[in-house]
TrEMBL record, chains A, B:
Chain spans, region Disordered: 367-393
Record's compositionally biased regions (Low complexity): 380-393
Organism: Streptomyces marispadix
All copies of domain FAD-binding PCMH-type, residue ranges: 100-283
Protein name (record): FAD-binding oxidoreductase
Keyword Oxidoreductase: yes
Protein keywords: FAD, Flavoprotein, Oxidoreductase
Amino acid sequence: MTDTRHAPRRKSATARSWWGWGRTDQALPDGECAALASLIPGLPAEPLPVPDLGGIDLAPPRIAPPGSLAPLFSHDPEERAAHTYGKAYRDVVRALHGDLAAAPDLVAFPRTETELVDLLDWAATANVAAIPFGGGSSVVGGVEYRGGGHAAVLSLDLSAMDRVLEVDTASRAARIQAGVLGPDLEEQLRAHGGGLTLRHFPQSFEFSTLGGWLATRAGGHYATLHTHIDDFVESMRVVTPAGTSESWRLPGSGAGPSPDRLFLGSEGTLGVITEAWMRLQDRPVHKASAAVRFTDFAAAAEAVRAVSQSGLHPANCRLLDPGEAALSGAAHHGESVLVLGVESAHRPVDGQLAELLALAADLGGSVPAPSGPDAPDTPATGQSGDGSAAAGSGDAVGAWRSAFLRMPYVRDGLARMSAITETFETACTWDRFPALYEEVRTGIGAAVEEITGSAGLVNCRLTHVYPDGPAPYFTVIAAGRRGREAAMWDEIKTAAMEILARHGATVTHHHAVGRDHRPGYDRQRPEPFALALRAAKSALDPRGILNPGVLVDPLPGPTG
Amino acid sequence: MTDTRHAPRRKSATARSWWGWGRTDQALPDGECAALASLIPGLPAEPLPVPDLGGIDLAPPRIAPPGSLAPLFSHDPEERAAHTYGKAYRDVVRALHGDLAAAPDLVAFPRTETELVDLLDWAATANVAAIPFGGGSSVVGGVEYRGGGHAAVLSLDLSAMDRVLEVDTASRAARIQAGVLGPDLEEQLRAHGGGLTLRHFPQSFEFSTLGGWLATRAGGHYATLHTHIDDFVESMRVVTPAGTSESWRLPGSGAGPSPDRLFLGSEGTLGVITEAWMRLQDRPVHKASAAVRFTDFAAAAEAVRAVSQSGLHPANCRLLDPGEAALSGAAHHGESVLVLGVESAHRPVDGQLAELLALAADLGGSVPAPSGPDAPDTPATGQSGDGSAAAGSGDAVGAWRSAFLRMPYVRDGLARMSAITETFETACTWDRFPALYEEVRTGIGAAVEEITGSAGLVNCRLTHVYPDGPAPYFTVIAAGRRGREAAMWDEIKTAAMEILARHGATVTHHHAVGRDHRPGYDRQRPEPFALALRAAKSALDPRGILNPGVLVDPLPGPTG
């Protein structure tokens, strides 16, 4: 394999952490890790060291790339390590403990769709599992091979296919390659002119790709109305082992079941998304936001329900329960905080915000004195996570926002201290929410205590809301035991999936299924749909090489 | 078969036409047919007589129902005749000519899901094609058997499963059986209280069912934002030969590809939809509408584009081109008419309408003097067809609305005079619309002249609009030749499908695929998606009994 070029990773690679979230220069120093951990009784005094690849034995690749495609491959240890896991808590913890047993044999960086087709052809012939990596920000084991009898494992990294290829300003749409990361996508749209933006800002924005968003049905910027990336898809191209699928660019169609909707959420099991025509928005110039405090969380949730059913469509509508509000510094004394944000490219939004605040006040909220509109956002501040629309106005909004953006790095710092710190998210109808909230708090609280031996925090925020129900996002923080962190979390997670299922709440609202959510997903997915999905997979991926273990298990034998 | 009860049809059956649209007492009398036809040169002087079933030989049923299920069946000739076709022009014409060769052998009226399961079990065993009938308003050959080697044909009529079973007012959703017709559905919701409505008003509202809307992805009331019924589905139950699929009630989910989206648009080929939890709306109390005139159609279309991208979300946004405006009496002298309607359950809408009108005026429209808001609608006037939000205000709005509701009856009257009168609809992105519009007008104009020997009318309206493109709806009126009406239309339709495909416009925006759109759909559907869909069908319907010929042809042999 001496002729194998170590293909360069994306531009930002120099600063990217192979074991933890984001950029190495943003990671918490040892002292800060220890200081944070001192707030949680029962943790070790010293952080786990930042892992050193030199001290970790990676098994040698079990297969050599074919000669003609060799320049696309890398078997560089850091590339293999960086492509082993996503960025879930359990991924970070395993990396911290030097466990890279799941490392792919090879990483490939196709630059064109033709090269991708060739790679899949080779993989099918050689019985190599092919796992689309996206930006590697999966928190559900979506990019990690966990067996299936393949000869070797290939991680597919589309970061070289990262261009905005075309912009149609009349229809406000752009043809965009799947490998582009969020900030680069917005930067290229800006350079095209026309004032258009995709305005899809999941919390992972900096480190996730368009293709990953589509494959996992990511939840983005809009807290109401259009929450999932699905609604912004005009057409898609997907390379499957059975051929390339390209839907027509259509604003709407009733011609049979939607082809795009089969590939949206298919998580790399049916094909590899290479590009999509995406619907764009005019960049908003009018913005306003405010935080409303509630002394009673149930009243706050009722206010959010009223907002969701008001037809006012706030861009941001985020409710922090007392624990979450306290943790982020947005409020104390047991208050819940509702962050509301409105925005428009076309008209002032102060009246809309005033109407929202009046509604919240009617339902028991303490509304702040009026303030001026926010400044227009920039690419940097525009990255606002899974639902946060507007920066700045009000201390509670600002406090929450800072905490939100810092959260994944804090998580890694706590992980180094062997704290358990992870989230899970769901959605349910409004009639079920109060009971679900209570049972998660008490049930997971009890599970944490039983599993870890001490009490932990179980907080909740609502990140997206629909007229028929909210998407609650739970955070769990507890003292883990060094070496047992991942196992402990897995037990807590199992308890969580059981509670969600009992309340008819989805196993995931926007984190996807991957491998970690399979038990809950297998319970939730209607069996006839499972039959159909398995049959579709067998037709498109008859050798079963695409992201095996995710979503469904293959049929016993190929039918295609 | 003497023990077979002739199951009663739905309550409205007494007045329903078996051969034409709607109610027999609404059909045009002979004199009116002739008067209408006198406007089109070259037609016969006398209408075809209303067909008499006594004079039509129906082949005897080729199969007897199984004893235990016999009470569910009818072989009454009028039931069989009424379940032979949908209500497309070519269906009406064939019935007028006494062609009922495609009549189903039997019609079954299951009253419960268990009975439906038993019926499908029997059909699979006996190799009987089972065709879900919905309300029978298909205009694409969706309910008509056209071969496939089955022993017999069964039309499945779910009109006895027509209840609103549950209403969740907190989440604004209702569990509704699939066989309910539009007016009955709204009446039951009204009786439940809470001021909720599904507010889905396709043109076929009176004579189509919830199950039909879901199976065909019907386009409803809202001209912008949410046009398809898809967006109002919270969960669905579908009986397939491989088991019953029930998705969870969820406001949103990112757990794999959406199960509902596979069954939405499946047109009875994968299973029979029995019930759904549907998202409801608060009944609007504030309404306003206005008509804007344009001397230039291109400018009018640009104004509609601006409206669609303005974020103002009018409930109605319907553009009539000069021919369509003249035909409906909404305008003359070559003007185009844009009908705008706004509505809200929560707040006055005059400001929203004023903003829409200002936008239209800026782009060249003649805006009327302000008028008061419309009265709240009633169940009767609330039925407003595919996108018309508001009744009454302004002569142009009223004229267009009256013509719209009368249209299907007029169509039947003209059909009796051997005029060709039919529509086709599509959607495309804004960048393609001007060229598409021109080519349809000239290309179909030329085709009509070549096929019929004389010039016809080719008009256009936009029924639904999206930020990235409109859904144009074309009307063709021409002099047919008696006995050749359906064949002539088929030739025109073939030309239309070719033009649509050339411009990347969908073969259907909301009429579905059925059998008539198969050539266009086969071209449009990505081939890997066709593979997946065929595999899914083989898994769910291994004997290939469900609505054979629609959407896809089965795999050569069962794989399930």
